[in-house]
Design brief:
Blueprint: E1 2-6, H1 11-22, E2 26-31, E3 42-46, H2 52-62, E4 66-69, H3 76-81, H4 83-103, E5 110-116, H5 141-160, E6 163-169, E7 172-173, H6 182-194, E8 201-204, E9 210-212, E10 214-215, H7 216-229, E11 235-238, E12 243-245, H8 246-256, E13 262-265, H9 283-289, H10 297-313
Parallel strand pairs: 1-2, 1-4, 2-3, 4-5, 5-6, 6-11, 7-10, 8-13
Antiparallel strand pairs: 9-12
Length: 315
């Protein structure tokens, strides 16, 4: 079984490769030239998904049986600052991949398209976990592009008989994540405070928002289970099924801190529009795959902080 991971140089890609290696798959990975990826027993290539001809040539050469499409501009904050890039990568890049698959002769791999819980926006009933049939009301540029990607996937699955499974992954965190994301941002600041590199003042955005956080290792395990057991043309939520406030996440990390931390709100960290509560209903995922999370939020956050501490200590 030949398995391709796009966006393999990103945060999630490295964890997915580890999961697939544990499952003994024959792995191929594509990344952008400026990204680094150092893993054994993986055929790594540079590939720009915005170059449709190169994408088709790659698929014709390697013909992977399964494609995990992780390549994306995945930061909400960056999407506000650079909407054009976000649209190009998340919509045009996905279209190039799907059209390449569609036009390669005698070729119909199984494809997992990675979307986001951000697609739902403000839920109709904020007291309930969000099901996959919830109307989509995205309130940021990143979410709009992912909602569009999902709709394109559903159309291509139906119109062309493509073996596409779509997911909406809610917030996932882990060691090595970029500090543009909230848990890594808090952890990096704490590590710098402990090392005396910044005053013990935590700069924060909106702490009242509640989000559904999962360990990235749990998320990639859900991806591989859906690749095997997911129904083509169907969308699956992936999350913990339990929302917690950003304040609670911060409190857990501060509880691990070796210094006394003062909180200070930073207007630069506030989003123009922010959804108060996002929580996933994961019953469809569980019913079809038997998946359940293995890692607690505390354990995950501790691993994030330890990673940031190690980065400070490196010469």
């Amino acid at each position: 079984m030949n398995v391709l991971v796009t966006g393999a140089g990103g945060f999630v890609g490295k964890y997915l490769i580890q999961q697939l290696q544990a499952e003994k798959q024959n792995l191929f990975a594509v990344k952008l030239p400026h990204e680094t990826l150092s893993v054994q027993n993986v055929a790594i290539s540079n590939l720009d998904l915005l170059d449709g001809n190169s994408v088709k040539a790659y698929l014709e050469a390697y013909r992977p049986d399964e494609i995990y499409h992780l390549a994306a501009q995945s930061s909400v904050a960056i999407s506000w600052k650079d909407p054009q890039k976000t649209v190009d990568v998340n919509i045009k890049g996905t279209l190039n991949l799907l059209d390449a698959v569609r036009t390669v002769e005698n070729y119909n791999p199984k494809i997992l398209l990675i979307g986001s819980g951000e697609e739902y926006g403000f839920p109709l009933d904020s007291t309930k976990a969000i099901k996959e049939d919830e109307p989509l009301k995205p309130v940021n540029i990143y979410a709009v592009t992912k909602a569009c990607q999902n709709m394109i996937g559903a159309v291509y699955a139906k119109a062309y008989g493509m073996n596409l499974v779509m997911v909406r992954a809610f917030n996932h965190i882990g060691a090595g994540q970029s500090s543009v994301f909230v848990a890594a941002d808090f952890a990096k600041q704490i590590a710098q405070m402990e090392a005396g590199l910044q005053p013990p003042v935590m700069k924060v955005g909106n702490l009242s928002a509640k989000r559904d956080f999962s360990d990235v290792r749990d998320v990639v395990r859900a991806y591989t289970l859906l690749m095997q057991h997911g129904t083509a043309g169907t969308t699956y939520n992936i999350g913990s099924g339990q929302a917690v406030s950003i304040q609670e996440l911060l409190d857990i990390l501060i509880g691990f801190s070796q210094v006394t931390v003062t909180i200070q709100q930073d207007s630069q960290k506030m989003r123009p529009v922010d959804v108060p509560l996002i929580e996933a209903d994961i019953s469809r995922l569980q019913n079809d795959t038997g998946w359940n999370p293995l890692y607690s939020l505390k354990d995950t956050l501790y691993s994030v902080l330890e990673y940031e501490r190690q980065q400070i200590q490196k010469p």
